Amino acid sequence: MSNTSDVRTVDHLIIGGGFAGLCAAIKLSEDGENDFVVIERASDVGGTWRDNTYPGAACDVPSQLYSFSFAPNPDWSRSYSPQPEIQAYIKKVATQSGTLDRFVFDTSVEDATWDNQTQRWIVKTSGETWSAGTVIVGAGGLSEPRLPEIEGIETFQGELFHSAQWDHSVDLAGKRIAVIGTGASAIQIVPELQKTLQASGGHLDVYQRTAPWVIPRNDRTYGALERKAIKHVPGLQRAYRAGVYLAKEATVPAFTLWPGLAAPVQKQAAKHIAKGIKDPELRAKVTPSFAFGCKRVLISNDYYPALDADNVDLVTDPITKITGSSIVTADGTEREIDVLVVATGFFTTELPITEHVTGSDGKTLAAQWQESGMAAYKGTTVPNFPNMFFIVGPNTGLGHSSMVLMIESQVAYIRDAIKTMRTKGFDVLEVQQSATDAYNHGLQKRMKRTVWSVGGCDSWYLDRHGKNTTLWPRSTWDFRRRLAKFDPAAYRTTTRTGTGAAATEKASA
């Protein structure tokens, strides 16, 4: 397809207006790459932090790490930021960056296809069609809510919503509410619902498939003097950030390889259960049977006391079906409810956007990943998808630190790739299959040793093949080092006059 009057042409098209897309937009602008557009399906920036407005929504990464390194935020009110503050921060950065005029809101990407003839991406959206030299995908792994496949869920007649699509118009006072799931969102939601229902005579059922490990949330409010010092004392905020970062990096990556190192923390988590729950039978139900760290470790001070409250029941029997007004479990018990809250996570190992992206060989990315699971070179580029870069791609997730660190590392790599295209005269970059295979072989070899693989749990980190295609198995500084400079030797490069040299880099993880 060639350019016509009804196709708009840009150098770069960015998909998604969350942390990833915004970071890419700001850094491209700094490089003088101003011919770009950001396609965002919602009406505002923010991504995950725009959408997740459920009661109690907050970050489980310390505030000082949850901001761009180039835009520190001195206005955090506490050590773990609540959702409204994070969203306000993203909007402030976006406004001050001067890039919002290139954001196209309320527009979704319907199809992105590589045109071998023009060597450009043709991106059809719900508004217009674009021709782009490069596409940067910042849609994220927590963008598509996953509903559970339970018989009869479509017949439920009460109020039903996913945690990421909270319906604030529903009056919850005095209601019988069920929460399905006990993951990161659920343990923030449950205490808030428990308090609301206790004050209004309502009841809460929490449906648990697998008990998570939960440790204390060492959260505190920043005092007025401390906040003033962070804002005005030179270097203090940077010191805060460095201290928190080093503490995270010095401990967590190590015990993922040597689970025994986590024994003291696991004992602390067990004490946390004993402190929060009086009932021995309930304690047993919430005590995990797998190694600490195998699934995402959660933080909360009030989750266990909420479960122990008189107006809350923890249900561990499997759900067999949902009726118009109740949930039925395998033991035959039917529990009537008015509201059903689904906190069952997102499509993380089968990204929905991959069904709408077609590469140079005519196959969608979903089809390419169907047989062996998600895989990318340095989490950023994929064979058969030239000039396409992923932010928060396969094996870039973290279980211990801030994803903003990973996003900035990937954006730095993408910037250098685009600069290389400019200076070397390359029109097309496509990572070689051999480089991708070598990189992922080393990564998965290391992954087999981690607690995520040998810890005895079945988590959302693993795909249907049992392979961890979600997490990064090393430190964030190691990831940053690997992506500090673009490596053209791992790519096939094409110019308008022919094909450039293509050499396979010995990539390892």
Indicate the topology.
Layout: E1 7-15, H1 19-30, E2 36-39, H2 48-51, H3 83-97, E3 103-104, E4 109-115, E5 120-125, E6 129-137, E7 159-162, E8 176-180, H4 186-200, E9 203-207, E10 214-215, H5 224-232, H6 236-257, H7 263-276, H8 280-286, E11 298-299, H9 303-307, E12 312-315, E13 319-322, E14 326-329, E15 334-336, E16 339-342, E17 357-358, H10 365-370, E18 388-390, H11 403-424, E19 428-431, H12 433-447, H13 451-454, H14 476-482, E20 491-495, E21 498-499
Parallel strand pairs: 1-2, 1-6, 2-3, 4-17, 6-18, 7-16, 8-9, 8-16, 9-12, 10-11
Antiparallel strand pairs: 4-5, 5-6, 13-14, 14-15, 19-20, 20-21
Structure notes:
The chain is of the alpha/beta class and 509 residues long. The protein has two domains: 7-144 and 347-425 and 471-486, FAD/NAD(P)-binding domain (3-Layer(bba) Sandwich); 153-221 and 252-342, 3-Layer(bba) Sandwich (FAD/NAD(P)-binding domain). It is 31% helix and 18% strand. The strands form five sheets. Strands 1, 2, 3, 4, 5, 6, 17 and 18 form an eight-stranded mixed β-sheet that branches. A five-stranded parallel β-sheet has the order 7-16-8-9-12, covered by helices on one side. Strand 1 (7-15), helix 1 and strand 2 (36-39) form a beta-alpha-beta unit. Helix 1 packs parallel to helix 11 and helix 11 packs parallel to helix 14 (476-482). The longest helix is centred in the middle third of the chain and has 22 residues, at 236-257.
